[in-house]
Amino acid sequence: MIIVMKPDATREDVDQVLARLESIGSEAHVSVGQTHTVIGVIGDRDRIQQLPWEALSGVERAVPVLKPFKFVSRDFRDKDTVIEVRRARIGGGSFAVVAGPCAVESRDQLFRVAEAVQQAGAHILRGDAFKPRTSPYAFQGLGEKGLELLAEARDEFDMPFVAEVLDPRDVELVSSYADILRVGTRNMANFTLLTEVGKQSRPVQLKRGFTATVEEWLNAAEYIYKEGNHEIIMVERGIRTFETSTRNTLDISAVPVVKGLSHLPVLVDPSHSAGHRHLVAPLSRAAIAVGADGFMVDVHHAPDTALVDGAQALLPSEFAALMDEIRSLAAAMNLQI
Ligand code: PEP
Ligand code: MN
Question: Least crowded by CB within 10 Å, which of 20, 138, 212, 284?
């Protein structure tokens, strides 16, 4: 249930509601909006509904939430969540561009790509130190050494970076280096990992599972949110369908669907959706037009020799051309870029 306080409710009114909730053993999450304070309540539904909430001072209404996800829903908070990481801003009218290599391969590779994407206007660097590979014999990432290189590149090019965390046991380690954590498509329903990243004070990119419905994806976000980490960035990265001409089918409609259901920002990953370089620019244009809050693109200075996902990586020059194109689209959509 959600308890919406009146615009003139006092701190004491809110405290009184919280005390009543505590007395019946319910969990409460308070969201202070511009006009209303909203209290999200989790607990025994019958006990919660028995109490006359609307008779309490300062309470405007008590609304049952029928959806399985609650705190990430717009019912709980109608204002868009805006996430700021260093100078980068995601959501609330800012279009965020995340770019970099799929995997960190070496200092030289990372620095070349990081410099190029920074000069072209990207806001956040991507690069993974732990890679989830289909084959156990494929390159698995440089591990902590990769995180050290990413931290060096962040300082050199003044860009926050995002890196994937694969294993609950590595959450502390990745959090100690990365500005933003990422849960990849294969781990979207790894509830132990979601719970661990939910305890961190780092924003989390949550990729959609490639076989997950929007509702399952939002429930995964709820796992993170309820642990106390409210800075969640949803990333649509394509789903598995019968179509084989792309690596995954970019579900472009999921962007407005999620933005309608949730206050969380949504990014699009055209690289992992398409799997082919020539499709990245058209899908990036689609992302901006459909209302996404940003995109995340793979860039590599020598895609033919990339250790991971070379076929979908843009050359730095292609990325720079895409950024030029995107700037006029952003202006047309009234977005800051
Ligand atoms: C990635 O972004 O590098 C990645 C592995 O993506 P996904 O989890 O969407 O496959
Ligand atoms: Mn990849």
Answer: 138
